[in-house]
Amino acid sequence: MTKILLLSDTHSHIDDTMLKYVHQADEIWHAGDIGNLEVTDKLKLLKPLRAVFGNIDDNTTRMEFPLHNRFLCEAVDVWITHIGGYPGKYNPVLKNELINNPPKLFICGHSHILKVAFDKQNQFLYMNPGAAGLSGFHQIRTMLRFEIDKDTISKLEIIELGKKFKN
User: Fold this and answer.
1) What is the band of 167 on the pLDDT scale with cuts at 50, 70, 90?
2) Predicted model pTM
3) 161 pairs with which residues across the strands?
4) pLDDT tens by residue, 93-114
5) Burial environment of residue 149 by CB neighbours within 10 A (0 to 12, 13 to 18, 19 or more)
């Protein structure tokens, strides 16, 4: 069994509340818009990290992390990317691959809108953890956590980090 903490759109922000949940996980997954590598450097010191770069990330971040990260976690085929769309309106660049070779779990960031849905047409679970950082239009900072046990995804929880405050 692997306990996953999923976050996105940190936009250079990490705080003690977020780190409390990092300590409870086995792996951290970041779905892009990291902001700067200080965020991922802190995460990597604590737990194994899988991440992708997002549209606001600079060349240094793009050299360290891929645009797409597809891997197996236990027996679950996972695909993480930053700008992936959502069920019924996927990024056109990815749509054919999602239809012809669907993962079991498709994860995106970018929208700052927390959404979890089962895509019945393509038979995979879609997750967007919302935004954990302070930049953007979202009002509540969010993350997701869940467990993967062999080929089963379970114990999905929404983590609300509280209201975003103005810098």
Assistant:
1) very low
2) 0.96
3) none
4) 999 999 999 999 999 999 999 9
5) middle
Report the pLDDT averaged over residues 150-167: 89
Q: The tokens 């450097």 sit on which residue?
A: 41
Report pLDDT for 163.
87
Q: Which of 141, 136, 144 is nearest to 111 (CA)?
A: 136
Token code pair at residue 148: 């993967």
Average pLDDT, the chain: 96
79 touches 106 (CB < 8 A): yes
Q: What is the 3-state secondary structure (H, E, C) of 115-137?
A: EEEEECCCCEEEEEECCCCCCCC
Query: DSSP code of 101?
Result: S
The beta-carbon contacts of 124-128 under 8 Å, at least 24 apart in sequence, are 124/98, 125/153, 126/86, 126/87, 127/6, 128/8, 128/31, 128/86
Residue type, 22: V
Q: Report the b/e string of 20-34 with b at 16+ CB within 10 A.
A: ebbeebeebbbbbbb
Q: Which helix (H) or strand (E) holds 153?
A: strand 152-163
State both tokens at 94: 């990815």
